[in-house]
């Protein structure tokens, strides 16, 4: 039997999904599992999107263009205008989820051995895509005690080598909920410019900024227009993660042409997903506002609740719908597995994503978890009680 | 401005899609373009599939499991049984089109520098996926004069090195329409076994075998059950290329676990596509028969027509819905571009895929094109007339 690839051995399991088999076992035993592990909102997909799907007027569900349906890309141009992001239709390439946009960015811009600097904790799948294409992620730790603010410019410069090709940020941030300030974004721009790097900017949570502080897109930064590759997705903002529609946006002609080779290799992004996503752009403002207000409330409720549990600490996330919280446990990986396999309270338990999977520096995040506040308040309330009971019962507790 | 990757420079443009800009220009000038270049059937998607989409009874279009929806995989087990392919639900991983199944197979099984032996001409995107993961495709030419039969075992063995990790076949074959015989499949099995290789077997055209000769799946071969990775797709058999649903099927536990890491990294395959594909498995037999008969007729019509054009030759494809035909031209790349940019007959022209893109051996396929017979007979008839007129007018004609 031939061996699998070393690359495959090196691939990390998703910290968000690796505990799924344990969760399935718990469910099979009749235990109710609160999913705090995954950014799967429980909010309804907009009616206008569902209607578009139900009224598809085609005889053949055929390939779409490799770069995506034109009318959808035209409407996206207008959507981005609202955020002061000025792009042309040719700058927008539709991808199979934001995931594929990250992957194609890496493939088109990075060769094996090329290095990307990423503030950590970071969305775990960046690592998986980097391994897929042989690129090396160099991380700069941000810390929970500083609310996961951007590390200093010096820290970036310490990591720059002749192989450094890109900086990757996620703003608002998954997993921390941090929102980069104008000053921080200017610092990133300066480094990108000084060393002529790509700036991969994952901005899928732009609609979820809660503090009144402005959302600064990488495309707002002057003088690096050709360095920016923006990653986007409709998944979160319209609660339609399953349709797998994202976008890669760049003004860099060479990158565009190159990314198109991968787009053509995989033929086309999902047709029905694009139809749904295009219709979603017409979602009424009151839906968006309702969703926004819901997350504002959930955020307050969750963070207050977490900080009331003895030994727990979470900074207040400014955006997205995650937080990274510190728990009074020896090892959050063990604790999260234990919650699913050996614990329940009144027939319920919680599933969280151990934060270690969002760091590459060994040992970091060992007592941290990522929690998504994508459940309704009454479920969050129950989950918080279960979490507190679990922390009281856990053999590896540290208080 | 930072440079794109060398990998990107090395990526070939799709021979199927690279002429799209020229085709778009021709269309903008009001010219009717017959698409013989792409395997996009014009047949309607089954009603049962469209109905499933129109009646999706969900509030939230959420992520599906990374390995695909369970009920869909259960039904696929029964589908494969009909072809004497005995697999369990856990052997089936749903992918975003057959493309992703090829890509994940390569990623999970091959490291940079590992070699795959592929009979050529071969589906061009194998090359793109190989470049993506740093693997090296070594091709063995099959020739139009021998009807694209499998090259001899000796030819395979000549190419085997310490880095050879896999053989890749497509059966029935895209682009040639060749269907491997039992004897040929046994030869492949013997090599796979002798050198302990992976056998990647792309069998997406299994429903399209026209000669009465049996379709032999890689899973029918005894003694290499753990070596086989089967690539499948619902795109062609239900004329639903746009939904992007395929499958990777293997009994090799290590490969499965490894592929799942990539599945988790990209989160999930398209939800609506899976719902449509699952429903498609209930397509009535009479639809399948009608489609089959349609292709039988189109095949005969196209091949007869091609072989009547002076200087043209096409063997009779035994399966799939393509043929590789020899044309009396100096360079099929130039000819195909010329048809779109400088030629029209009564306001019409043809788009074909130059076969050079399906070979890696330089110079091979120079006067060959791949033609898909996915258009209805009356369109094929017009396309054949246009092709004949183009060949008469083309400055680089060789007769």
From TrEMBL, chains A, B:
Required co-factors: pyridoxal 5'-phosphate
Aminotransferase class I/classII large domain: residues covered: 33-384
Coiled-coil blocks: none
GO biological process: amino acid metabolic process
Keyword Transferase attributed: yes
Keywords noted in UniProt: Aminotransferase, Pyridoxal phosphate, Transferase
Pfam family, one: Aminotran_1_2
InterPro entries (alphabetical): Aminotransferase_I/II_large, AspAT/PAT-like, PyrdxlP-dep_Trfase, PyrdxlP-dep_Trfase_major, PyrdxlP-dep_Trfase_small
An MF annotation (GO) of this entry: transaminase activity
Top-rank taxon: Bacteria
Family, similarity comment: Belongs to the class-I pyridoxal-phosphate-dependent aminotransferase family.
Name of this chain's protein: Aspartate aminotransferase
Species this chain originates from: Parabacteroides chinchillae
Organism phylogeny: Bacteria, Pseudomonadati, Bacteroidota, Bacteroidia, Bacteroidales
């Amino acid at each position: 039997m031939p061996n699998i690839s070393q690359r495959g051995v090196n691939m990390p399991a998703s910290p968000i999904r690796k505990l799924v088999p344990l969760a399935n076992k718990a469910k099979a035993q009749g235990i109710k599992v609160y999913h705090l592990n995954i950014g799967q909102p429980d909010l309804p997909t907009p009616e206008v999107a569902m209607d578009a799907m139900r009224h598809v007027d085609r005889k053949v569900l055929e390939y779409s263009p490799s770069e995506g349906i034109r009318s959808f890309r035209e409407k996206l141009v207008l959507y981005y205008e609202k955020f002061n992001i000025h792009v042309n239709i040719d700058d927008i390439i539709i991808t199979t989820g934001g995931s594929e946009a990250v992957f194609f960015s890496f493939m088109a811009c990075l060769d094996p051995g090329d290095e990307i600097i990423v503030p950590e904790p970071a969305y775990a799948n960046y690592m998986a895509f980097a391994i897929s294409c042989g690129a090396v992620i160099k991380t700069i730790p941000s810390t929970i005690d500083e609310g996961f603010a951007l590390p200093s410019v010096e820290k970036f410069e310490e990591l720059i080598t002749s192989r450094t090709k890109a900086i990757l940020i996620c703003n608002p941030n998954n997993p921390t909920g941090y929102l980069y300030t104008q000053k921080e974004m200017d610092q990133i721009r300066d480094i990108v410019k000084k060393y002529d790097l790509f700036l991969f900017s994952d901005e899928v949570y732009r609609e979820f900024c809660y503090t009144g502080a402005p959302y600064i897109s990488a495309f707002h930064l002057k003088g690096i227009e050709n360095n920016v590759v923006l990653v986007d997705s409709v998944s979160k903002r319209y609660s339609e993660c399953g349709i797998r529609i994202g976008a890669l946006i760049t003004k860099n002609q060479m990158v565009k042409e190159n990314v198109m080779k991968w787009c053509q290799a995989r033929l086309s992004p999902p047709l029905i997903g694009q139809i749904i996503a295009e219709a979603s752009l017409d979602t009424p403002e009151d839906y968006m506002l309702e969703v926004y207000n819901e997350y504002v409330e959930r955020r307050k409720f969750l963070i207050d609740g977490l900080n009331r549990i003895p030994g727990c600490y979470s900074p207040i996330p400014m955006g997205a719908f995650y937080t990274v919280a510190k728990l009074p446990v020896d090892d959050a990986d063990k604790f999260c597995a234990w919650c699913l396999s050996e614990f329940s309270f009144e027939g319920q338990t919680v599933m969280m994503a151990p934060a270690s999977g969002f760091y590459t520096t060994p040992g970091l995040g060992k007592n941290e978890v990522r929690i998504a506040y994508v459940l309704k308040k009454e479920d969050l309330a129950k989950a918080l009680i279960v979490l507190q009971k679990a922390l009281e019962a856990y053999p590896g507790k540290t208080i």
